[in-house]
Amino acid sequence: MSESASFSAEAYFATQPAPQLLAQEIAGVKEFVARQAAQNRNVVLVTSGGTTVPLELNVVRFLDNFSAGTRGATSAEYFLKAGYAVIFMHRQFSLQPFSRHYSHSTNPFLDFLALEGDGPGADTVGITAAKRADEDLLAVLTAYKRVQTAGTLHTLTFVTVDDYLWLLRAVSQELSVLRRRAMYYLAAAVSDFFLPRQKMSEHKIQSGKGSLHIEMDQVPKVLKPMVEEWTRDGYIVSFKLETDQRLLIPKARAALERYGHQVVIGNELHSRKVQVVFVERKRKPMTFVESWLRIAPAPSAAIHVKEIEEDIVAELLRRHEAWIGEA
Ligand code: PAZ
Predict the structure, then answer these.
(1) From the CA of 55, how far away is ligand 1's center (Å)?
(2) Terminal Cα-to-Cα distance of the chain (whole angstroms)
């Protein structure tokens, strides 16, 4: 595949179709934001999971971006715990706040129930494990019910990069009424290249003619219009994923210079659960400031450990509060 044309955000939205239910989804967001504003709550938009790029209109094949949704779902829980309202915009079927604790991979639900079935003949180890599982479930359920009662979580889903970009623009515009009290936490892994509608084959691409050559266009860099047009003074946090640790800081600095938002959080693929770097631009004097945030790795997957998102969110709450105070 070779690199091709790049779309401006304007050209992109003028030529790529909006998701069918966009107007309906945004009506729900408007109502949610108005309710939170009336209760004086800060609101954070959390994006989470990877976007796909379909290769055919009747889609059989697509490219995907890596992300399980752990960063976004976990962070959303800590924002909720801190009293923020959360718009959780995630890839369909990726992890979600609260239910993430009992997904097919973490604590598969049947294994969890099997623990409960240990019964009268169970040994002490079995009973202790079941008791621990009960306590954990109760804590998750209590937090979840509290959020349901308060009405502070609103969920939206996307699959393709088109869904994502249309939703991101519309949700950001709705949220901008909160000015500095809105935060945008962009943890989704978004495709850099896509196939415009106009270039897609209608039906399944046929094999049998040798290798496949696809020329993709560059997805518009929407952080710039997001900063300059869609949000008004909101606190924007973007994430940068790299597999070469040495690129993290230069790429994060370049993004801050190009888009002018508040902070980039850099993370390397394999160490992302134990360390991240916050990169920020100070104006007087004009310099970049980097601070690493690290936690100790878990001794084993079975042992309950601290989640790095707890510290990421705590740090952002401090910075957001300062940002609101500067107004
Ligand atoms: O969802 P997850 O926990 O598996 O991964 C999170 C992440 C690495 C996708 C996220 O922290 C991130 O860096 N998002 C931005 C990716 C990018 O540079 O496009």
Answers:
(1) 23
(2) 47
> Given ligand 1 and candidates 71, 89, 273, which is best to mutate, with the most ligand atoms within 8 Å of its CB?
71
| Residue having the nearest C-alpha atom to atom 19 of ligand 1 | 189
Give the full edge-to-edge strand order of the sheet including 2-6.
Answer: 2-6, 215-218, 193-194
pLDDT tens track, the chain, 327 positions: 444 567 899 999 999 999 999 999 999 999 999 999 999 999 999 999 999 999 999 999 999 999 999 999 999 999 999 999 999 999 999 999 999 998 877 777 777 777 655 555 556 666 677 787 888 889 999 999 999 999 999 999 999 999 999 999 999 999 999 999 999 999 999 999 999 999 999 999 999 889 999 999 999 999 999 999 999 999 999 999 999 999 999 999 999 999 999 999 999 999 999 999 999 999 878 899 999 999 998 777 666 689 999 999 999 999 999 999 998
User: What atom in ligand 1 is closest to the CA of residue 267?
Assistant: 13
**Residue 91 in contact with ligand 1 by CB distance below 6 A:** no
Residue 88: CATH number of its domain? 3.40.50.10300
199-238 core/surface letters (b: 16 or more CB in 10 A; e: else): ebeeeeeeeeeeeeebebbebbbbbbbbbeebbebbbbbb
Nearest CA owner, ligand 1 atom 14: 187
Residues facing residue 314 across a β-bridge: none
Do residue 280 and residue 198 come from a single domain?
Answer: no
**What is the 28 CA–ligand 1 centroid distance (Å)?**
27
Containing structural domain, residue 165: 1-99+152-233
